[in-house]
């Protein structure tokens, strides 16, 4: 079988990213233009500003990715781009550019689910990793327990009923004055604190989650006690929200008898959460975590997922549109 070079495009939020990946696993280039400094001023992502910056950056980032990969545009075999979920304006920029490339180069177009891309980040980190496995998807927009049956078949066993775990981190960080992005800042501050503040845990039937309650409790606690030790508050918040997460993970393992767990999404970079998952290895459970640089949004993961979609025959035509609320299953 000849080598397949996939060009991945990711623009679902505030990262303009393009990557070239060989055979779904070997990253030849992975260029990311981040807008974090721009949106930090506003305390979060402003959709209109994100879209405008994607338009300004997409062409330059694409040319840089192809150049860094040491290939020419004619060498690309597949164009893979995120078409959802995400901010509709941001999605449309990357998708439209990908469609134009597909048409101009006469190469197949593959629309990739952003969540599927996060799962595929692990295929790059672990070249021998293969489904089936359980994936714990943790990001600013999604928290899900996914049974990954094959490279392209997924069953969502549980999901958040309100805030995603990353959303809870960001909202808490904003209220206590840490700014955006909140997750990494809470993680850093928590390392200097003690988890000695009792917080409520919401219990939901089955494998679904609810993080709105603990988020609100922390926010209210800070409002009532503005001089509260922030290090201890962050450490306690991190501990309790992780316990809620782990309780569902253990139920999922018992229910499916699956002893292989993969982490995915931006929150999988959290140092405390990673350590707690590593403890499961003592129970005979295999734990896989993407490289830190692949936890957050990037195009290498989109190229990897697109490669496997392409092999499965999932090719789109130029009528493909952005789906901001796209589900995995």
Question: What report would you give on this structure?
Answer:
By secondary structure, the protein is α/β, with parallel strands linked by helices. It has helices at 36-40, 47-69, 88-105, 114-125, 165-175, 182-190, 212-224, 230-256, 271-278, 292-295, 300-311, and strands spanning 5-10, 15-22, 26-34, 78-84, 109-113, 133-138, 143-148, 154-159, 260-264, 286-288. The chain has 2 domains: 5-120 and 295-311, ATPase, nucleotide binding domain (Nucleotidyltransferase, domain 5), CATH 3.30.420; 132-290, 2-Layer Sandwich (Nucleotidyltransferase, domain 5), CATH 3.30.420.40. Helix content is 43%, strand content 19%. It has a 5-stranded mixed beta sheet with strand order 3-2-1-4-5, sandwiched between helices. It has a 5-stranded mixed beta sheet with strand order 8-7-6-9-10, sandwiched between helices. The longest helix has 27 residues, at 230-256. It is globular.
Class by SSE composition: alpha/beta
Number-wise, the strands total 10
Label the overall shape.
Answer: globular
CATH-defined architecture of the largest domain: 2-Layer Sandwich
How much helicity do the residues have? 40-55%
List its traits.
19% strand; five-stranded mixed beta sheet; single chain; 329 residues; alpha/beta; 43% helix; 11 helices; 10 strands; Nucleotidyltransferase, domain 5; 2 domains
Outline the fold blueprint.
Layout: E1 5-10, E2 15-22, E3 26-34, H1 36-40, H2 47-69, E4 78-84, H3 88-105, E5 109-113, H4 114-125, E6 133-138, E7 143-148, E8 154-159, H5 165-175, H6 182-190, H7 212-224, H8 230-256, E9 260-264, H9 271-278, E10 286-288, H10 292-295, H11 300-311
Parallel strand pairs: 1-4, 4-5, 6-9, 9-10
Antiparallel strand pairs: 1-2, 2-3, 6-7, 7-8
Helix pairs in contact: 2-3, 4-11, 5-6, 5-7, 6-8, 8-9
């Amino acid at each position: 079988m000849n080598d397949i070079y996939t060009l991945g495009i990711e623009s679902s939020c505030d990262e303009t990213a393009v990557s070239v990946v060989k055979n779904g696993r070997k990253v030849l280039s992975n260029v990311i233009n981040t807008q974090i400094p721009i949106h930090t001023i506003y305390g979060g992502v402003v959709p209109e500003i994100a879209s405008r910056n994607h338009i300004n950056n997409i062409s330059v980032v694409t040319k840089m990715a192809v150049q860094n990969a040491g290939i020419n545009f004619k060498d690309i075999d597949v164009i893979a781009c995120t078409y959802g979920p995400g901010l509709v304006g941001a999605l449309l920029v990357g998708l439209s550019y990908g469609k134009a490339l597909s048409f101009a180069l006469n190469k197949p177009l593959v629309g990739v689910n952003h969540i599927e891309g996060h799962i595929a980040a692990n295929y790059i980190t672990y070249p021998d990793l293969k489904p089936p496995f359980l994936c714990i998807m943790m990001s600013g927009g999604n928290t899900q327990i996914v049974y990954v049956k094959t490279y392209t078949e997924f069953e969502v066993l549980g999901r958040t009923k309100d805030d995603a775990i990353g959303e809870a981190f960001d909202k808490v960080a904003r209220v206590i004055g840490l700014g955006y992005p909140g997750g990494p800042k809470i993680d850093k501050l928590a390392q200097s604190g003690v988890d000695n503040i009792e917080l409520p845990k919401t219990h939901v039937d089955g494998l679904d989650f609810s993080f709105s309650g603990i988020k609100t409790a922390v926010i209210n606690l800070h409002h009532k006690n503005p001089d509260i030790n922030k290090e201890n508050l962050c450490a306690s918040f991190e501990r309790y929200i992780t316990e809620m997460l782990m309780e569902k993970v253990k139920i999922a393992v018992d229910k499916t008898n699956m002893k292989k767990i993969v982490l995915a999404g931006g929150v999988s970079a959290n140092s405390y959460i990673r350590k707690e998952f590593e403890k499961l290895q003592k129970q005979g459970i295999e734990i896989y975590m993407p490289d830190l640089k692949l936890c957050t949004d990037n195009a290498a993961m989109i190229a990897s997922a697109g490669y496997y979609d392409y092999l499965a025959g999932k090719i789109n035509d130029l009528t493909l549109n952005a789906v901001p609320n796209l589900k995995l299953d």
